[in-house]
């Protein structure tokens, strides 16, 4: 056998496997789309009565404001789901074979993150037209920028989840990370409420805030509360940094 | 890209210079305070089938993980076809196939899809890949199940598919960790037949951990591990022959008293294993009636057996293979 380890082929093989798995698990497709929609409708309607949409920037209603937050939730759920399957696959599944193969460790990290990113992006694209119902505009440029925002968010959050998952010995120990790191990253991202006061300063330290702002500005002209170039720039810088950090962790352990 | 080698030429070059398939020299490993491996050394020649036999906690899985490049030893050297696991893990990874206790297959993918995935990890080209996959599916009797998802296969079939995965890139050394865990006896025999055939065909060196003596019996050589040390080593035949005698086991109410009597009256040293008193004797068939007569009241049960590997292990360590003290 000609054994010639490459970089991109195993990367794509890993990413493709994520996608195939996702579509073969019907319940997962349904849950991944249903849960955010359900929460969007409930939270959006409930909070909407108490928020003044005009202060929020982004659509005319709270449902409009919350729309990018709902997409961020899809990204978060996908990242958490991938991370949990990574932990299981490393101790008793297919990743055991990956780590004893000559595949470069950076390709392992990248493949796993890109797989999760593709899954998140597909779900987000399915949900994107709903933004039209709540005051969004889907121009070609807007959709392109929205996709760029979603990809940055998915790569950043996915790589962060991978970084912690690779260090977790069990799914149980990962739950703490999920509650203390990943979930707050979503809550404090401007998904539910815009940055203001001392909490606002904290939120501006959260890289996910920029990705959510970039998505909001792409879909709702005038929304986002910061220049689009800044939001998108910080989001991609975070995505690249997180991938780098995740690769380093995968290489070491 | 690092140096590219076909494993065929690697294997022939390695054979020509008679490099050991696996060389373990004074390997130590500690988990915190606990010593898992204590100066373990062993050498496996190309084409050999070697069983690492020991109970849970003997250190065999630790050794397996070190050789598979998954764990860095606290000390010592491990080389696979001359390549050091610490200094050149990628060269080692190209030459090893690894079969874990739990199949490293995706249950959502079919058998064939899993093998294609594996081939892509190793950068095996399309044309070569398909031919190799069909060949392995045929050899391992999986052709008619190749389109089934791994999740629906029986344990025995999933294990075979996992062995196909481990063999896919034609590794010089196949490592297996407790390959027959969770298999029924028939599937165990099938697996051993299959591994033996693979060795005949491609000269693949096979090293497996096991706590089952039936499995170790079928290896060319057995290395017995206990508490992180090699306690005995040799072909199954030489290991048994080293005992030189039959094994007599006696069940009694007071093993200590009986042991003292055996020493006084017959000048025999005995061992207590699992509450049974064990003696080795060159002429058990004539000695047992004599013994039974002499100690009639104290013997509840007495048996003679040709020594098994389990007896050899017990003789060396004083306890059974089944004695587990946590996973190693």
Report on the architecture of this protein.
Chain A has one domain. The mean pLDDT of chain A is 90. Chain A is built from 11 helices and 1 strand, in the order βααααααααααα. Chain A is globular. Chain A is mainly α and 253 residues long. In chain B, strands 7-8-9-4-10-11 form a 6-stranded mixed sheet, with helices on both faces. Chain B is of the alpha/beta class. The radius of gyration of chain B is 23 Å and the shape is elongated. Chain B has helices spanning 7-16, 60-67, 89-95, 111-121, 126-139, 155-167, 185-202, 213-217, 236-243, 255-266, 284-294, 309-317, and strands at 5-6, 22-31, 34-44, 49-53, 75-80, 83-84, 96-99, 173-177, 205-210, 221-226, 229-234, 246-252, 271-273, 276-281, 299-305. Chain B starts with a strand and ends in an 11-residue tail after the last helix. Strand 1 (2-3) of chain A pairs antiparallel with strand 1 (5-6) of chain B, so a sheet runs across the interface.
Name of the CATH homologous superfamily of the largest domain in chain B: P-loop containing nucleotide triphosphate hydrolases
At CATH's second level, what is the architecture of the largest domain in chain B? 3-Layer(aba) Sandwich
| Count of strand segments of chain B | 15
Indicate the low-confidence ranges of chain B by residue numbers.
1-10, 324-328
- Evaluate the radius of gyration of chain A: 18 Å
Round the mean pLDDT of chain B to the nearest integer and report it.
88
| Spatial shape of chain B | elongated
Structural class of chain B: alpha/beta
Largest interface (CB < 8 Å): A-B, 29 and 40 residues
Instruction: Tell me which oligomeric state these chains represent.
Output: heterodimer
Number of helices of chain A: 11
**CA distance, first residue to last residue of chain B:** 36 Å
Q: Span from first to last CA of chain A?
A: 28 Å
Helix amount of chain B, in percent?
A: 25-40%
**Could you give a short account of the major beta sheet of chain A?**
none
